[in-house]
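Protocol step 4 of 6.
Sequence for Serine O-acetyltransferase (marine sediment metagenome) entered exactly as in the expression construct, tag removed. Do not edit the line below.
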Amino acid sequence: KKRLVKPLIDLEHGKLPDPVAEAVNILVKRIGELEDRTKELEARLARERITPGETSEIGDEE
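Step 5 output, structure tokens:
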């Protein structure tokens, strides 16, 4: 006589977190932050009439 045994752990694969999707989402968020910061710094450079690579008397503000 066969006995049916219920598994101790029910692995519902469709409900497991997707680590690759999570990593991509983190990277997309960070890229957006870096793009915003780049635009901010480019605008600051334009206001101060400094070309990228040129040295100035402006100190680091961070």
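Step 6, annotate. The helical segments are 19-47.
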